[in-house]
Design goal:
This protein is an all-alpha fold. It has one domain. It is about 95% helix and about 0% strand. It has one helix and no strands. The protein starts with a helix and ends with a helix. The model has no long low-confidence stretch (mean pLDDT about 80).
């Protein structure tokens, strides 16, 4: 009983460590996506502003 209990405790510990690593990785990916989206919208805005100035 104690052997299997400690085995499951080890599994839970390793699982939670892995989950936290995955969460951190996902958070970094999400931040990167947001940054990419901001730069994309920034360049689009910049292009429309430049075009607007050229047209004006």
């Amino acid at each position: 009983m104690t052997k299997s209990q400690s085995f499951f405790d080890d599994l839970l510990q390793k699982g939670s460590e892995r989950n936290s690593i995955v969460r951190i990785w996902l958070a970094e990916k999400e931040i990167q996506c947001v940054k990419d989206r901001q730069t994309l919208t920034g360049t689009k805005k910049g292009k429309t502003q430049e075009n607007g100035e050229k047209n004006a």
